[in-house]
Amino acid sequence: MNMTEFDYKVELAKIPDTPGVYRYFDEEGTIIYVGKAKNLKNRVSSYFAKSNQHDRKTKRLVTQIRKIEFTIVHTEFDALLLENTLIKKYQPRYNILLRDDKMYPYICITNEPFPKIITTRKVDRSLGTFFGPFANPKAMNTVLEMFKQLYTLRSCNLNLSPKNIQDGKFKVCLEYHIGNCKGPCEGLQTETDYNKEIEQAKYILKGNLNQPKQHFEELMLNAASRLAFEEAQEFKEKLLILDKFHSKSTVVNPNIRDADVFSIVSDENAAFLNFMKVINGTITQSQTLEVKKKLDETDEDILTMMVWEMREQYDSEAKEVITNIPLSIELKGVENTIPQIGDKKKLLEMSLKNVLYFRKEKADRQASEESGGDRKMRILLTLKNDLQLKSLPRHIECFDNSNIQGTNPVSAMVCFKDGLPSKKDYRHFTPKTVIGPNDFATMNEVVSRRYKRLLEEDQDLPDLIIIDGGKGQLSAAGDALKSLGLYGKIPIIGIAKRLEEIYFPEDSIPLYIDKKSESLKLIQRLRDEAHRFGITNHRDKRSKNFIVSQLESIEGIGKTTATKLLKHFNTVKNIYDAPIEELEKVLGKARALRLKEQLQAINDEVR
């Protein structure tokens, strides 16, 4: 058929009502799109019927179709496999291109006598057994470093065939003499003994640490029974290395066996996915990626395609796939779970936090470019994306309680506008309804007083409220906003000091912003400024109360007289420096003399 002549009605008449894969060709005979369908006729017809309902990209695809081919398969799952293969082979222009991840490194255990453990970015399955890919090379290097501590595996590239070893072609190198290798090149270690260590390394790479732990524990007990205590100590130290490595892994729940966790969020142009591989209740690998949309693909279709792809790349054999939306196709031998409660739900939430943070970082980069070099605007745009705010946080207010040793409790509020301090808007608060040190009640009172006044005076409300404290203080501030009808109208967060965790109301899982992020530094600056401002006021108040109290302790001077002195001289220093004649005008001669004698001691104590 002439490729320039295309009658889609004639082509559609040939297509059956069965599962299969269809391929669209352009005028030059190039495959421009591959798709799968439960019903080929219905799916392909949908491209040409009601074309006015398609998006711009799909309309462009349809105008370029000059030929249709299809392949019938037994099931929709078979269609998924064939579609996957054809997209990888032809990489059509309008298809989402599946990742090959050659950019990420793998660990390979080579197929040869006395196998080596090497890293490579080129996957050739004939070379050996591959583990990965490792989206985080640092994690991969941690594993390799641990292998050096646990096992004595060779690092040379010698051909250690039985004949070469028997013929004595090689001599041990420095690695043997410093204890990193047992010298298989000279036949000093048998291949059986060597392969036992390789098998233990494979268990670790597969995420199973129990087997290596049991192996070293048996060796340790055996050595101890032979009274070889130094040897037993060596195995004990190896056990400790494994325990330390395991403790640094993200342990989810030992009751959750092997599972793959996937979450997806998307916008008009791209989908963002996170994958976490869970083995024996521990997250062993994680990767977050962006998939550019080519047509109006649904999240279900993108997720299903990527689930299959990622499981293939990571050699996953897990029988359960946990997702935030259902897969569009039922995968053979795999149960798709969308948890609503429990530990699996928490695991899915962790995955979603990763994917949302990944999307936010991308938005940060775009915001930086859009800011055109304006640093203040760039930081505010980054903060907006970090916290997923609806508007730019030009006006931010931060609250802090100061309550040193339970005395003179005060609270402080600082205000930043366009990323800079607005000191004329700073405020101090002395609790009126709270007795004694009670951070939660104090926070509730001062936040309520602040925004009740702004509402009464019809002043501008902030774009963001920051509370210096964790979930308790944040909850108290949130209750104050609820009482004023402002909850949900003004974004509010809490920052906990210990790990710089960002808490949102009614969310138990904190957000961790990159410690180097400019937005976190802005939040910290607000928090530190509120603390400084509060502490300064606390000290001033405590000092003034202390001075009045000390003045009252002088014989013949009560609270009225002490206040009168401060009002007349303004400061203790002025009282101390005043000549006796000036003091006599306020106190009279006898009391002025007694005051003068005691002021030096009081001044020393205040200092």
TrEMBL record:
Ranges of residues in domain UvrC family homology region profile: 342-481
Gene Ontology CC: one annotated term: cytoplasm
Location of the protein in the cell: Cytoplasm
UniProt keyword Nucleotide-binding present: no
Keywords of this entry: Cytoplasm, DNA damage, DNA excision, DNA repair, Excision nuclease, SOS response
GO molecular function terms attached to this record: DNA binding; excinuclease ABC activity
Entries under InterPro entries matching the protein: GIY-YIG_endonuc (IPR000305), GIY-YIG_endonuc_sf (IPR035901), GIY-YIG_UvrC_Cho (IPR047296), RuvA_2-like (IPR010994), UVR_dom_sf (IPR036876), UvrABC_protein_C (IPR050066), UvrC (IPR004791), UvrC_RNase_H_dom (IPR001162)
Record Gene3D superfamilies: 5' to 3' exonuclease, C-terminal subdomain, GIY-YIG endonuclease, UvrC, RNAse H endonuclease domain
Record CDD domains: GIY-YIG_UvrC_Cho
Plastid in keyword set: no
Ranges for domain GIY-YIG: 17-96
Signal peptide: none
GO biological process entries: nucleotide-excision repair; SOS response
Pfam families xref list: GIY-YIG, HHH_5, UvrC_RNaseH, UvrC_RNaseH_dom
PANTHER family on file: UVRABC SYSTEM PROTEIN C, UVRC/OXIDOREDUCTASE
Role played: The UvrABC repair system catalyzes the recognition and processing of DNA lesions. UvrC both incises the 5' and 3' sides of the lesion. The N-terminal half is responsible for the 3' incision and the C-terminal half is responsible for the 5' incision.
Family note: Belongs to the UvrC family.
Subunit structure of this chain's protein: Interacts with UvrB in an incision complex.
Descriptive protein name: UvrABC system protein C
Organism, as annotated: Pseudarcicella hirudinis
Upper classification of the organism: Bacteria, Pseudomonadati, Bacteroidota, Cytophagia, Cytophagales
